[in-house]
């Protein structure tokens, strides 16, 4: 058997083929009969005008038919364009579709400041949905055109035109361009990703109470924490003395902070007393995934921890911390890069889920209930 494709020029008309099988030894006799059945004007003497391409593995010979004129092609394209709706909804999601199990991908987006990894994770699903819906829509449009008398002039050419892969692909592009579905946003609405905001400093971390021998100085990382929580150092010292904690050195009276503190002084002291290892200050909340996505995971310059969310001390490199029981008395605005400090002094938004590349997570160590995470963290972008 052999695969044969034939193209013939006769009297200015271009003829092409549709597939049909022939044994190799009967190729030209069968081809002649097939051509004769289409038009009696084509005889064997015109075989020299045919271009034959053979593949020895199988035989396919197409029955001849006249190529569709450009004018008819245009009419068919216009017919499909006329039958298209202004908008289509091609990708549907249900209540189980979310990014709750995509923490590692979301962390990658935050690290790269790019939404591409999140979108790429959905590519196959979205394309599959779009192709399925496009095929249904195209078939419906074709059927409608076939029964509409105003398209009578193109009816005889429609099936052949529709079977052409290039024509179908162009239709598919036009339909996808009109797709109004937003699967990513729909999935984000159903997503609850835990997050933490960590205060990094030029100083490594805060020693636990036992390692510091119950002695604190208003300096280094401890000073950074007191300043972040907007506590008056003089009142911190007074509270420490009442709790049996040693406060050594100068603890200035910054009265401008009175009444504006982010946490209670006594709760702050209890948090330090129950710190189990070297830690950093962390704030808990839910990840603002929609905000991040809307801004293509780009840079923001301030982070807002909502009133009522908890904070405390946590160590993500060996999984330890404090009570994480300091509840914020007000919204706390944190700069991503702390002004007039080193490049290491910053607040960092991190995904706090297992196996996402951010070390031990709070949920893994503490096993907290959903309500413990409070409200969604807010981000402020430069205008």
State the main characteristics.
alpha+beta, 13 helices, 383 residues, 35% helix, 6-stranded antiparallel beta sheet
Concise structural overview:
Helices cover 35% and strands 17% of the residues. The protein has 13 helices and 15 strands.
Give structural notes.
The chain is α+β, with helices and mostly antiparallel strands and 383 residues long. The protein has 3 domains: 3-66, no CATH class; 70-189, no CATH class; 194-380, no CATH class. It is built from 13 helices and 15 strands. The strands form 4 sheets. Strands 5, 8, 10, 11, 12 and 14 form a 6-stranded antiparallel beta sheet that branches. Strand 1 (3-10) and strand 2 form a beta hairpin. Helix 5 crosses helix 7 and helix 10 crosses helix 11 (265-273). The longest helix has 24 residues, at 123-146. The chain is rod-shaped and about 95 Å long. The protein starts with a strand and ends with a strand. Residues 1-65 have low confidence and may be disordered.
What value does the average pLDDT take? 85
- Overall number of strands: 15
**What is the domain tally?**
3
Order of helices and strands: EEHEEHHHHHHHEEHHEHEHEEEEEEHE
Major sheet size, sense and barrel closure = 6 strands, antiparallel
Report the end-to-end length measured between terminal Cα atoms: 70 Å
Structural class, from helix and strand content? alpha+beta
The percent range for helix content is 25-40%
How would you sum up the global shape? rod-shaped
Integer-rounded radius of gyration: 36 Å
Low-confidence stretches: 1-65
> What's the helix count?
13
What percentage of the residues does DSSP assign to strands (E)? Answer: 15-25%
């Amino acid at each position: 058997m052999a695969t044969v494709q034939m193209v013939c020029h006769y009297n200015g008309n271009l003829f092409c083929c549709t597939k049909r099988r022939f044994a190799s030894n009967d190729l030209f006799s069968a081809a002649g009969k097939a051509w004769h059945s289409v038009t009696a004007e084509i005889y064997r003497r015109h075989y020299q005008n045919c271009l034959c391409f053979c593949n020895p593995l199988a035989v396919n010979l197409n029955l001849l038919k006249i190529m569709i004129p450009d004018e008819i092609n245009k009419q068919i394209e216009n017919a499909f364009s006329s039958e298209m709706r202004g908008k289509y909804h091609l990708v549907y999601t249900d209540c189980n579709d979310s990014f709750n199990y995509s923490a590692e991908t979301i962390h990658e987006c935050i690290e790269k400041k790019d939404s591409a990894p999140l979108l790429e994770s959905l590519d196959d699903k979205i394309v599959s949905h779009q192709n399925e819906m496009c095929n249904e829509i195209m078939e419906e449009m074709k059927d409608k055109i076939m029964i509409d008398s105003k398209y009578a002039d193109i009816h005889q050419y429609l099936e052949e035109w529709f079977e052409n892969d290039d024509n179908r692909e162009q239709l598919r592009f036009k339909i996808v361009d009109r797709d109004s579905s937003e699967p990513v946003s729909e999935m984000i609405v159903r997503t609850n990703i835990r997050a933490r905001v960590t205060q990094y400093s030029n100083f490594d971390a805060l020693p636990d109470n036992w390692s510091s021998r119950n002695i604190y100085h208003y300096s280094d990382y401890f000073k950074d924490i007191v300043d972040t929580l907007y506590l008056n150092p003089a009142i911190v010292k007074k509270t420490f003395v009442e709790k049996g904690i040693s406060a050594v050195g100068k603890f200035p009276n910054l009265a401008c902070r009175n009444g504006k503190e982010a946490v209670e002084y006594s709760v702050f002291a209890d948090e330090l007393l129950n710190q189990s290892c070297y830690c950093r200050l962390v704030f808990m909340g839910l990840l603002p995934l929609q905000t991040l996505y809307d801004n293509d995971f780009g840079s923001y310059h301030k982070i807002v921890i909502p009133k009522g969310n908890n904070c405390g001390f946590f160590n993500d490199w060996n999984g330890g911390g404090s009570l994480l029981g300091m509840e914020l008395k007000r919204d706390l605005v944190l700069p991503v890069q702390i002004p007039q400090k080193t490049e290491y002094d910053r607040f960092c938004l991190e995904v706090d889920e297992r196996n996402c590349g951010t070390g031990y997570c709070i949920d893994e160590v503490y096993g907290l209930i959903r309500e413990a995470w409070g409200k969604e963290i807010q981000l402020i972008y430069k205008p």
